[in-house]
Design goal:
Helix content: over 70%
Number of helices: 8
Radius of gyration: 25 Å
Number of domains: 2
CATH topology of the largest domain: 434 Repressor (Amino-terminal Domain)
Number of strands: 0
CATH superfamily of the largest domain: lambda repressor-like DNA-binding domains
Shape: elongated
Structural class: mainly alpha
CATH class of the largest domain: Mainly Alpha
Order of helices and strands: HHHHHHHH
CATH architecture of the largest domain: Orthogonal Bundle
């Protein structure tokens, strides 16, 4: 696989500045085709940069999924959530954490966390945010 090195913000700004400078340096009565060619070049460069950034995001997502990071779940675990299982429990088990281990990480009691998982209590925003951070998921994935 070809190694991809994205342009930095400074490099993108330098390309834009160079293009603006080229445009400003032209004679006032420059041929309209030259101006159109420059605009077309700028637009195609912008399109290519946007595609490269999209590709980079896709590669990061694939790498994160392969490493078990992020909010990627195997289909069987997604089905469990869709069938009504607690997302908190599914993600906790997916990360290989016991109820006690997660409770220790976020500083709450095991029984309180169990009550959240079973739906007997709603977790506070603070606790749910701590759970999301400990499980490396978005808060939206847990509620």
């Amino acid at each position: 696989m070809k190694k991809f090195t994205p342009l930095t913000a400074e490099e993108i700004l330098a390309i834009e500045d160079r293009a603006r400078g080229d445009l400003a340096a032209r004679r006032k009565n420059a041929d309209a085709r030259d101006t159109l060619r420059l605009i077309t070049t700028l637009r195609s460069t912008e399109k290519r940069l946007r595609e490269e950034l999209g590709d980079m995001d896709d590669r990061r997502a694939v790498d994160a999924a392969a490493a078990g990071r992020g909010t990627f779940l195997p289909a069987d675990r997604v089905r469990r959530i869709l069938d009504g299982a607690s997302p908190l429990r599914v993600y906790r088990e997916h990360r290989g954490l016991t109820l006690q281990a997660l409770a220790d990480r976020i500083g709450v009691g095991k029984s309180y966390l169990s009550q959240i998982e079973t739906g007997r209590k709603n977790g506070s925003l603070k606790v749910m945010c701590a759970c999301a951070a400990a499980l490396d998921v978005d808060l939206d994935d847990l509620v």
